[in-house]
Amino acid sequence: MKKYEKVFREDYERWHRENEAYRERVAADPRRLAFHLMPETGWLNDPNGLCQFHGEYHIYYQYTPFEPTGELKLWGHYSTRDFLTYVRHEPVLFPDQDFDAHGVYSGSALAEGDVLHCFYTGNVKYFDRPDYDYIMTGRGSNTVHVTSRDGENFSEKKVVLTNADYPEDMSGHVRDPKVFKGSDGAYHMVLGARDKESRGLVLFYESADLEHWVYRGRLSTKNPFGYMWECPDVFCLDGQLLLVCCPQGVSRRGLDFWNVHQCTYMKLTADRQTGACSVDEADIRMLDRGFDFYAPQTFLDEQGRRILIGWMGIPDADYGNPTVDAGWQHALTIPRELSFSKGRLIQKPLRELGALRSGCRIYEDLAGLCAESGIVYEAELTFTECLRMEMKLREGVSLRYEGGHGEGGILTLDLGEKGAGRKERPVRLDGLRGLQVFSDTSSLEIFVNGGEEVFTTRVYGQKGGMEVAGACAGRAVVYDLKSFSYAEPDEKTGLGDACRRNGSDGSEKNQKNT
Question: 46 an active-site residue?
Answer without folding.
Answer: yes
